[in-house]
């Protein structure tokens, strides 16, 4: 005997659910409505709908709503209470790049708070994100790198990432064609390199050479994160030596002092202060027609924060043994 035909209600349910999810996304953008919606218990429903239904459109709409939820402080608290990070981990392997992108976005916003970072680490995200950063599709690949950066803010997360070869994966992505991938790879690598073992691995795997090339990248966020990563690596003598041995690296770093973006200039000043400890780098900087004159301009420029870092860089360049 054949199964009875589906009722009119069951046929229309996916469309009804999609419409409800779309309305919910709009409501969650309103802080007043978001609080009431969260208190009504929407969080566990969204995590289920983002991971379970066979209907791709439902998963995409639910993951988008979850992303909106994670922007709200009440939503993040509810995600912690409901252990949402554990529940949505499987969605990072969803066949739909839209679902994956939405879940990554939601988790990046969620991990903006300490409770979110801790739950990511407890759920075992660090090694998963390292793997995803090496295999994700090009248009999504920057997202696991960005989320990995947040996961490494927890000591156990940092340890798990390093043990999963996160440094090597970040270095591999420095050569990616996508600018956002390069930016997040360099930023995450710089964070990882606060650990001494990561500095050693980075130097051994030619990260300094690749980062030095990225100082001249067309995208300012890549330049900023490359300078920051070099600053981290150059905390060691081996890092300074590796940087100085890169042809034209000092000149590229000095050129960033005239960058239009303040973050690029700040990171360049920090990197210069580190590199100038090396005699050869210090000599090149003193002989540069731009380095000290531009640093002096920044010192006198009226921005206290910028002036502070420029003064430190100037003292490093002018230091005499």
TrEMBL record:
InterPro entries: ARM-like (IPR011989), ARM-type_fold (IPR016024), RSP14 (IPR042856)
Domain of life: Eukaryota
Protein name: Uncharacterized protein
Organism in which the protein naturally occurs: Triparma laevis f. longispina
